[in-house]
Each structure stands twice: as structure tokens, then as C-alpha cells.
Design goal:
It is built from three helices and three strands, in the order αβββαα. By secondary structure, the protein is α+β, with helices and mostly antiparallel strands. It has a domain of 61 residues. A hairpin with a 4-residue loop joins β2 and β3. α1 runs parallel beside α2 and α1 packs across α3. The longest helix has 18 residues. The chain is globular, with a radius of gyration of 13 Å. The chain starts with 7 loop residues before the first helix and ends in a 5-residue tail after the last helix. The chain binds zinc ion. Zinc ion binds next to α2.
Amino acid sequence: MIKVISDVIDDIVLAVEKAFPQVDAELYWYYPKEGEDAKGKAILDDNVILVSFEVPIGKLPDIIAHEAAHLVEPDDIEHGEAFDTAYDKIFDEYVKMFGASEE
Ligand SMILES: [Zn+2]
């Protein structure tokens, strides 16, 4: 048996929870359609985050933080200041807890 000690998904989910405890969402994986560029989606009305199976594991924190920031700031779909602030707060928590960098 292999015991997973550090789970990249659990870690970023924990950072979201710490930054924005009010976020109550479900995360699903999906296969993007052919030619579709999106790596993740936030379905605001349903509090759902979709993450493409094609996202490399090292990019999952960024994608999940990005979509969670959309849930936090649903009116800022164009990635403005409110979105950036929410995203940065999540990533700051992530770095503080796990010492990871955005690269
Ligand atoms: Zn976005």
C-alpha cells in the first residue's frame, strides 16, 4: 500500500477553506471538448468547480484557486481587481501553509 502524505488537491482546497470559509462548492473533473482551451470552469449558480483531466498536477493549485476566486467574486468574471484580490488571498494561504510557490 502507498500512503499519500501530501495531496496537492487537498492542500489547495484547505487553502481555499482557510481564506474563504464561506465557499461551499463541489469539484468535478471533466474531459474538455476537442479544441476547447479551458482548463477549469466555475458554474456560479450551482457552486461547482470543473477541472479538466488534462491539467498537469503541478498546475492544479493555480486552476482550483482561480475557479474558487470566481465563486468568491461572481460579479468579476473579467478577472479584475476583486478577482485578483480573492485569488491572491487563496494563494497566500497556500504558500503560508505549504511553502509552495506559484511557479
Ligand atoms: Zn477565470
